[in-house]
Amino acid sequence: MSNTPISSREGSLEAPTRHPLKWKDPDFYNETPLFEELERVYDICHGCRRCVSLCDAFPTLFDLVDESETLEVDGVDKNDYWKVVDECYLCDLCYQVKCPYVPPHDWNVDFPHLMLRAKAIQFKKGERKLSHRLISGTDRAGRIAGIPVINQAVNAANKNPAMRKIASKMMDIHPEAHLPEFHRLTLKKRRKDHQPRGIQAIEAGPTRGKAALFATCYCNYNEPDIGEDLIAVFEHNGIPVRLTEKESCCGMPKLEQGDLESVDKLRQKNIPQLVKLIDGGWDIVAAVPSCVLMFKQELPLMFPHDEDVLKVKQHIFDPFEYLLHRHKAELLRTEFHQSLGTVAWHVPCHQRVQNIGPKTRQILELVPGTEINAIERCSGHDGTYGLRNDTWAKSQKIARPVISRAKKMEADYLVSDCPMAATQIANGLDLKHGESNPLSLLRKAYGI
């Protein structure tokens, strides 16, 4: 029989709230209260089942319950609780769009943070695979793969079936998983001597009119063209842009592994650099939603009393969020030279949970003769989940409905603000155009 307490209401009338992550509390790493909370939350999820369509964590849980002797959570072997944890990749969609029992509801369900706590305990015990730790070290991988001779060897190996089989055994990377190219000429190197144009910054809403680009590992090492497109679009709209002088990984790949100490170390490197820029009058932008989310939500929840972390939270923006603030103040240029036709726009999970609304669509719809069709469903990539041997096939399964919808749209372009999600979807499509990022499309529409 279910042990879930009876509630007088389903859902809350109040806006959802997020409690800080008490990861510094010694009891956070105690397995006894963890398993008590896992059983409590699993029981609530079993009685609800609204999240069954999101990822494989919930079908895994419900199958365990349905195959147990009692047909309830109390019949599930506690060791099998970890199977649910392993399927969660912290997209946060269950919290933001599905669960009716998030705080301030009495049941106080925060499934993603519960999974994060469990992953942190696994990491603390040394139970997370070494290969997963290595592939989450994006900075190190990018620096090594950017060395001239090594760069050619790495990119060639990523396209070689024999080498991919070796990587599958050594690094737990599925042989068919798409691996991004590593650029020797990174965004930082391309823009080493870039000076912001001498444009007078004008405030608009919370934006101050000049932006420092947090390049992110992916846009620096793997897709520097996206960073180039952002700079071109912003400067075309009178927004001076510079790169951050020093930066490390935002910490999201380490967070997903439960490596919270490494997240803290990366915070200590990044936050002082960003605060220095903010104090100098610069806003911060990043072209990868996960990185923006890390500074907007995850770090503030880990360090709720750190004034510098909270300052960065207030001054970091999604690029299209930034541009829409400028448009509302009539500061955005709307003289476009090319229609974009029909665009299938995939909305990344980590952009949706920022609660900023469809800013990308609102900006692209300013282009005459352009129709934006949104796909609000997870692509299933989520960094390492879409790469690993044991989860690659599940990742592809999650992506299939998104690919199917994109095919039915017969769009001229398929784009996603998340470059990894865009690649995951594009691999299942026969596309006429190569642009897969909305910043690239906006630059194309401007003709710059």
Q: In percent terms, what proportion of residues is strand?
A: 5-15%
Describe the global form: globular
Q: Low-confidence parts, pLDDT < 50 over ≥5 residues?
A: none
In angstroms, what separates the terminal alpha carbons? 64 Å
The structural domain count equals: 4
What integer value in Å does the Rg equal?
22 Å
Which structural class best describes the helix and strand composition? Answer: alpha/beta
Largest sheet: 4 strands, parallel
H-E string:
HHHHHHHHHHEHHEHHEHHEHEHHEHEHH
Roughly how much helix do the residues carry, as a percent range? 40-55%
Instruction: Please tally the β strands and state the result.
Output: 7
- Mean pLDDT comes to 88
Biggest β-sheet: strands ordered side by side in the sheet: 2-1-3-4
Q: Helix segment count? A: 22
Description:
With 448 residues, the chain is an alpha/beta fold. It has 4 domains: 26-124, no CATH class; 130-171, no CATH class; 187-324; 335-446, 3-Layer(aba) Sandwich (Rossmann fold). Helix content is 49%, strand content 6%. The protein contains 22 helices and 7 strands.
